[in-house]
Amino acid sequence: EPGLYIVAGPIGNLGDLTPRAAEVLRLADVVAVEDTRVSARLLRHAGSDRPMIPYHDHSAEGVRARLVERMAAESVALLSDAGTPLISDPGYKLVRDARAAGRKVTTLPGPSAAIAALTLSGLPTDRFLFMGFLPAKAKARGDALDEVAALRATLVFYESGPRLSESLAAMAEHLGDREATVSREISKAFEETATGMLTTLSARYADAPPKGEIVVIVGPPGEAPPASAEDADAALREALERLP
Ligand code: SAM
């Protein structure tokens, strides 16, 4: 059936490609991809010989318009280098334009590193905010963190090894020290999740930046800070006075 098929791929382990996703990759008229070299490997794994077209949301306007045009009569699969398209990856403008043109839009759901890391964290999952990649520059990064510091929500960040320690330190500074986890290489041979306070984790990675792909999960702010010792004394005196 013609239309746009959003296809989630694996985030490391090829075995995580769903049978339904593999079928769409085999049947699609064309597969829109970020990087043809990366996706060629997955298409081979899926047994697909379908043609690929490079696509980014910043691709020339004409590229997107032509894809939307093709969706009238053909099936277009959208695939990312890893995980779910549109999640810190290209695609939202393609979906927007496909919808505006009245094309059929459907998804083949699958892995996303954000959700995988959240489930590994042991931190509250009832309310979370996906922050994507923090800005590289210190000022913009601090502003982005200040903006969410008061939210009672678990925060999800994508990170890279070389920046990890510095980012964790900035989080501690702007959010206050909190419980956090660092998950890397999820679903791959060297999968690992480290837990601790932001300051502790930052120190741990300062001299040994980890290799591979990383997701940082930061817990919500704690309860209000304990009252000062003076307040506690006063409360205790009052309570004692009320005793019979
Ligand atoms: N669309 C992808 C998804 O659904 O997760 C994310 C794409 S984003 C460009 C790539 C980032 O995702 C990496 O820098 C890393 O933060 C995270 N990531 C991807 N695969 C991962 C894995 N296997 N383990 C940990 N983090 C991963």
Automatic annotation (TrEMBL):
Keywords linked to the UniProt accession: Cytoplasm, Methyltransferase, rRNA processing, S-adenosyl-L-methionine, Transferase
GO MF annotations in UniProt: rRNA (cytosine-2'-O-)-methyltransferase activity
Domain of life, per lineage: Bacteria
SUPFAM superfamilies per record: Tetrapyrrole methylase
Record has Translocase as a keyword: no
Enzyme class, first EC level, given as a word: transferase
GO cellular component, one term: cytoplasm
Family label: Belongs to the methyltransferase superfamily. RsmI family.
Domain called Tetrapyrrole methylase: residue spans: 4-201
Subcellular localization, as worded in the UniProt entry: Cytoplasm
Described function: Catalyzes the 2'-O-methylation of the ribose of cytidine 1402 (C1402) in 16S rRNA.
Catalytic activity, reaction form: cytidine(1402) in 16S rRNA + S-adenosyl-L-methionine = 2'-O-methylcytidine(1402) in 16S rRNA + S-adenosyl-L-homocysteine + H(+)
NCBIfam families documented for this protein: 16S rRNA (cytidine(1402)-2'-O)-methyltransferase
Protein name (record): Ribosomal RNA small subunit methyltransferase I
PROSITE patterns the UniProt entry points to: RSMI (PS01296)
Enzyme Commission identifier(s): 2.1.1.198
